Amino acid sequence: MPDMATETKQDYNITIGLEVHAQLKTESKLFCSCSTEFGKEPNANTCPVCMGYPGVLPVLNDQAVDYAIKAGLALGCEIDLNSKFDRKQYFYPDLPKGYQISQFDHPICNHGKLSIGSKDVRILRIHMEEDAGKLVHAGAERLHGSDYSLVDLNRASTPLIEIVSEPDINSADEAVAYVKELRKVLLYIGVCDGNMQEGSLRCDVNISLAKDGQPLGTRAEIKNVNSFRSISRAIDYEYKRQSQILDEGGEVVQETRLFEENSGKTHSMRSKEDSHDYRYFPEPDLLPLSLEQARVDKARESLPELPQQKKTRYIEEFSIQEDTAAILTDSLDTANFFEEVLTKGVNAVKAANWITGQIAAYLNEHKLELSQTKLTTDLLAEMLELINKGTISDNIAKNDIINELLEHGTPVAKLIEDKGLAQITDESAIEAMVQEVLDANPKQVEQFKSGNQKIKGFFVGQVMKKTQGKASPQLVNQLLAKLLK
Ligand SMILES: [Zn+2]
C-alpha cells in the first residue's frame, strides 16, 4: 500500500460545507441578563434562566437580534421579517435545560454569499441560537485524559449565529479562505470578536468525496475544528480516510467525527442524527420574532464599508497594488491606521508600502498587532515627511528609525539628532569624500578609465560606507561622474 502521507494524487472530488458558529459580542446572554465576559470563575456568570431552572422565562436580547441582522446584511442575505425560535432537544451534561433554543425552520437570514476571490460561496442560512455550557475534564490523568468532568455554565446561553454555507467549497485552501473572509467581515461590522482561541468562532466541517460525474458522496461532519490550521489538517485527514475506504470498495458512514489537535486525526463520535431526532418544536416561552422593516433598514444604514469594498476602493482611489490593498484591509485596525496617516498629507502609495513592508515585517517577526506597538500615525507621517524633504534617506529610515518608532515611539526629530542620522546634503562635503575615495583607490580608477563601467558601484559603496549611508546616492553618482571624467 502506498504511504498515505506521500499520496498526493487526487482521485476524488472533495465537497465541503461549513457551519461556522460565531459568538455575538453582546454584553449579556441571549435570554437573561448574565454577563458574557470570558475567563470568569466557573459558573460565576449564571442565573436560574441560563441554568435551566423550572418555571423561568427567557427574554430575548434585542442587541443580539440587531447583530444577527447586521451579519446577514453584510453577507448578502435576505432578512426574514418573521422568524421564530424552536427547542432542539438532546441530552448532554453541559445543557441543563435538556434542550437548546435555536432557530429551525424559520431562520432570521437566508440565501447570502461571500466571495473568496476565486469564487462566490453561497450561504444557505444564518440562524440564531444559544450556546451550551462547557465540560472541564478534570481529575487524575489517565490513558484517555481524566476520570471525571466538571460543568461550567458561564457560556450557557451566550448568543451565537450559525452561518451555514452551501457545499460550494472544493479544497482545504478554499475552506480556510472562506473562514478567514467570514471572520474579517464579522470583525469589520463589530458583531463578533473573532477570537478562535477563546471559542468565539468555531467550525464544523462537512466533507464528502465523489468521483467525476458521480453524485455527492455520504458526508462526515467534523466537529471541534477551531483554528485555520485545524481546518486544513482535518480536511486533509478526512480526504485520506474516506478515499481509502472508497478505494477498498467500502462505504463512508454518515456520522459526526471529532477532530483531535494533537494527532491531527478525526475520530468517530456518534452516528449522525437527523433533525427529526431532535424533536424540534416551537419554543412556547417566546413569541415568534417579528421585525419591522425599519429596523432592518436602520441596520443596513449602520453597516460600515466592508473589507472587499474597501480593498476595491484603495486600488481605484490610490492606485495601490492589489496584494498591498489586501494586506491593508486584512484588519480594520490596519486600514484605519492607513487612512489616518493619509489625513496628514502623506502620499498614499508611500504610506501603503511602508505599512505593508517594513512595518508588517516587524509585526510578523514579533507576533504583534499594530495597536500593540508605540508607532502612531503622527510618527509615521513625520518620518515620511522627513524622507520626502531629503532630511533622511529611505535606507536610514528602514535601518535606524522605523523599529525605534515601533518599539519606543521616540520623536523622529530627536532620533535623528541623537544618532546623527540626517542625510548629508552639503555638496562640497560629499565631493571631498568622493575625491578621497578616488585617491585611495588608484587601481580601480585605472580600471574604470580603461572601460570597466561596473567599478562605479564599488566607488558608490565606498562613499556610502564613509558617510554611514547618509549621503544622497543620487548626489554621489552625479559627483562620481563629474570627477571620473
Ligand atoms: Zn443567566
Shape: elongated
Q: How many independent structural domains?
A: 3
Largest sheet, in brief, is: 9 strands, mixed
What is the topology, as strand order, of the major beta sheet? 2-6-7-10-1-11-12-13-14
Q: Beta fraction of the residues?
A: 15-25%
Distance between the terminal alpha carbons, to the nearest Å? 74 Å
Written overview of the protein:
The chain has 3 domains: 13-298, no CATH class; 305-419, no CATH class; 427-483, Arc Repressor Mutant, subunit A (Orthogonal Bundle). The chain contains 15 helices and 16 strands. The protein has helices spanning 62-74, 172-188, 228-247, 293-302, 307-318, 322-328, 332-342, 348-366, 377-388, 394-408, 412-419, 427-440, 442-449, 455-466, 473-483; strands at residues 13-23, 78-79, 82-83, 86-89, 99-102, 109-115, 120-130, 134-138, 148-152, 159-165, 201-210, 220-225, 255-260, 265-271, 281-282, 289-290. β12 (220-225), α3 and β13 (255-260) form a beta-alpha-beta unit. α7 packs antiparallel against α8 (348-366). The longest helix is centred in the middle third of the chain and has 20 residues, at 228-247. Residues 1-8 have low confidence and may be disordered. The structure holds zinc ion. Residues 29, 32, 34, 46-47, 49-50 line the site of zinc ion.
